[in-house]
Amino acid sequence: MRRSASGLPLWVPLALMTGAGTLVLLIRMGRGDESLWGLAAVILCAVGGLITHDMAWRRLRQAERDLAAAADQTRLAEAETEEVRMALSSFTEAIDLMVLVVSPDGEVMVANDQAQRRFGGSLVGAPLLSVTFSQELNRMVAGAAQEGRKLGAELQLSHPQAWHASVAVWPEPPGNERILVALQDVSSERRLERVRRDFVANVSHEFRTPMTSIRTSAEALLDGGMDRPTEEKFLGGIIREIDRLSQISGDLLTLSSVEGAVVQREPINLAAQVQEAVRGLTPSAEAKGLELAASIPESLEVWGRPNLLSQVAVNLIQNAIAYTQEGSVRVGLEEQDGWAVLTVSDTGIGISAENATRIFERFYRVDRGRSRATGGTGLGLSIVKHVVEAHGGRIELKSRLQQGSTFTVHLPTAEPEA
Ligand code: ADP
What we know:
By secondary structure, this protein is an alpha+beta fold. It folds into 4 domains: 1-91; 95-185, PAS domain (Beta-Lactamase, 2-Layer Sandwich), CATH 3.30.450.20; 190-258, Helix Hairpins (Orthogonal Bundle), CATH 1.10.287; 266-412, Heat Shock Protein 90, CATH 3.30.565. The chain has 12 helices and 12 strands. The protein has a 5-stranded antiparallel beta sheet, sandwiched between helices. The chain has a 5-stranded mixed beta sheet with strand order 7-9-10-12-11, covered by helices on one side. It has a two-stranded antiparallel sheet with strand order 6-8. Helix 8 (270-287) packs parallel to helix 9 and helix 9 (306-322) packs antiparallel against helix 12 (380-390). The radius of gyration is 44 Å and the shape is elongated. The protein binds adenosine-5'-diphosphate. Residues 315, 319-320, 323, 346, 348-349, 351, 359, 364-367, 371, 376-382, 405 line the site of adenosine-5'-diphosphate (ADP).
């Protein structure tokens, strides 16, 4: 408000002065000075005008204050909306949820960052079908709009690559004009389920073969009428199959103890473990006429579990012997820049590039019959890989068909962090 020098509203001194002037005029008019009536009216109007002007001025200032307060309120509301948007965005980020808002005519109106990242391109304004390439999702959206209720399903989407989505679609109240679409990628869960199913099927299959063989032999023995050497042959077969069953169950137990685990480690002399494995397998190499050569230092310390690392060396050397018909198997161990490097090379049948990516899978065998004939379970390399990884190491394979293979294991020599 406009103010006088004394700090009072301007209209107050003006009104006082004008009032005083009017009083003087009235007194003079009362004495018969009629010529001043007009002047008095002018002064009264001026006073009225001033007062009206001041009131209008006050109202204007009040309106300005109201406007400023409204602007503050709007800023506050905007900040709150932004906060809610950010909270929603980090929530959907945390649970990895893609959210799309679709208009009644099927166009994307809003897409959150996750949806943007998944589908790419400019989503807003695009038809939903050209974003997801899924007729099924479009049908769900139409269904939700028509029925006015939430619909859920799991869909196999093909864009931008094949993936499984758990989808929820629901109309936004009131009026159900817009449809909200929420998608979550459940591909890894489905993949895990498939691996688990395959694993159970593989285990039952692996058990069924020796059990069938045991049953057949037992039935033949039950029928009787065999001479002693034939009986012994059947009984020997039963014992071999039982050994095989316990080998599979032992391997499965080892595998489940190291898969995805970080094992408790202690300082051990890896060189002694590898030396021991070579010594133990020398007879089987000799039986096949293979040279088994080792270049291993006296001592090389790593942090690990002795029985597990010993199994790594045994499995690799055993395989090298099993899959080599002639030539040699070479075992090397040395330290390189904080790593213990174990190499097992052979001059055997080799592994094709296509199979090289799969032989570390449980029960995967290039030649099932050959593996069975060598007493393999198809779990050896899978155990090796998981043991090495549980020790913070890695395994690599270089191989050429009919020329041989080299498996290289790197294990850290340093004490693992707590
Ligand atoms: P298995 O018990 O059958 O030997 P592994 O898991 O140890 O199972 O090996 C998986 C498959 O990898 C084997 O069946 C074999 O086909 C292949 N393989 C492993 N080591 C060698 C090797 N040194 N040379 C050629 N093939 C190998």
